[in-house]
Amino acid sequence: MTQVSYSPGLEGVIAAATSISYLDVEHEQIVLRGYDLIELARVKRYTEVAYLTLYGHLPSADELAGFEGQLRADAELPEEVYRLLELLPPRMHVIDAQRTALSFLAGLEDPDELRDSSPEANLRKGVRVLARMPGITANAYRALRGLRRVRPDPSFGFAEGFLYMLTGSRPDAEAVRVFDLTLTCYIEHEMPNSTFAARVIASTLSDLYGALVGAAASLKGPLHGGANEAVAHMLLDILQHGGAAAAESYVLERLRRGERIMGFGHRVYMRRYDPRALLMREFLPHLAARRPEGEELVRIHGVVEHVMQREKGLYPNADYPAGLIYYLLGIPIELYTPIFLVARTAGLVAHVTEQHANNRLFRPRVLYEGPRGLRP
Ligand SMILES: CC(C)(COP(=O)(O)OP(=O)(O)OC[C@H]1O[C@@H](n2cnc3c(N)ncnc32)[C@H](O)[C@@H]1OP(=O)(O)O)[C@@H](O)C(=O)NCCC(=O)NCCS
Question: If you measure from the C-alpha of residue 63 to the centroid of ligand 1, how many angstroms do you get, rounded to a whole number?
Fold first, then answer.
């Protein structure tokens, strides 16, 4: 075996060649199919960026109409999925319900289509999954809470319809725009743990659904997507324990105890701003008035950020503003990581498609530290 160095957590290791996205930390840019993700988020809808992520180019007007039409047409869930969701134990996390539904959907695919890992088949399945993810997510939440089903309404666009199903009421234009922008911010981000998990699974030539199920399990963790929910809980905890005036001592006490403050730090950005966090933060002052405690929460958010920079030199990642934005939009907290998964579905499908199209099995080695020579 060739001697290679061991990098705990695979830090700094190049795990795949890709033409999907790249974190250009030096230039503070997230490159997505050649574009700057932040510029895209400012001027394009999620569905346009999803098309770009999946097919490699921005859609023409006809291509976009076709793609959005497809997402509408495939949005309704098979009856069996509603019934599955209604069987799940009420204490289950919504992301575990999403993962279960994704697994179940694999069984509803035609077996030949499920096995077909050509780019065309993966993209066909991927678009079907993306179309169904908002309905799965909203209905998983509703079923777990004992609420009635909500059906996708084809008169809404993707983000609008998703937000409508999450909150149960027709969203206004500002809410739709900001929510759509957060979905774009979450759409794709090079090689986080969940994308790596999906590619590792796909590299055995296992199917797209299996790869997405693995990615969902990875995304749930608080060191990854789960951080946006942890952020909202922390901000509310500070609100209940003295508000902005007590935020500094709250953070200092947590740090003194060696705890992590969720929503800060990043393996790749290290001690720099995540460009998505900077973009999403711009919207907080506009959204603050949407909830009675909004202004105070935005103040707390600012204090925690300031203290983290001063004390640890750590900057917010995307989950830090996203957690608060979703709260200000009136979305229940247990839906934040599941929303991240819905948005990331486009990126994951693109990665699985790319992995299958140019596959080499992932099979690393270990640095063995156990005993040797023992006898039974
Ligand atoms: C994202 C994350 C896992 C990256 O971790 P990593 O690259 O493995 O870096 P490490 O865990 O080795 O952290 C490096 C140092 O920064 C500290 N640190 C990193 N993130 C921190 C945080 N959020 N709060 C407090 N300290 C933090 C670590 O304690 C460590 O300090 P030490 O060297 O004194 O022990 C980490 O920053 C984290 O746990 N953040 C909070 C969870 C989060 O927001 N996740 C979403 C990521 S998009």
Answer: 41
- Indicate the SS3 state at residue 153: coil
Q: Give the pTM.
A: 0.97
47-221+333-357 belongs to CATH 1.10.580.10: yes
pLDDT tens digit string along 48-74?
999 999 999 999 999 999 999 999 999
Mutate to test the pocket of ligand 1, among 10, 267, 315 (most ligand atoms within 8 A of CB): 267
Round to whole Å and give the CA distance between 296 and 302.
Answer: 10
Q: Please tell me if the CB atom of residue 265 comes closer than 6 angstroms to any atom of ligand 1.
A: yes
Domain boundaries, the chain: 47-221+333-357, 227-328
Closest residue by Cα to residue 44 from 181, 160, 176 = 181
Q: What is the mean pLDDT of the chain?
A: 97
List C-alpha distances in Å: 293 to 238, 290, 328, 330, 373.
Answer: 12, 9, 9, 12, 64
312 Cβ closer than 6 Å to some ligand 1 atom: yes
Verify whether ligand 1 is closer than 6 Å to residue 185 (CB atom).
no
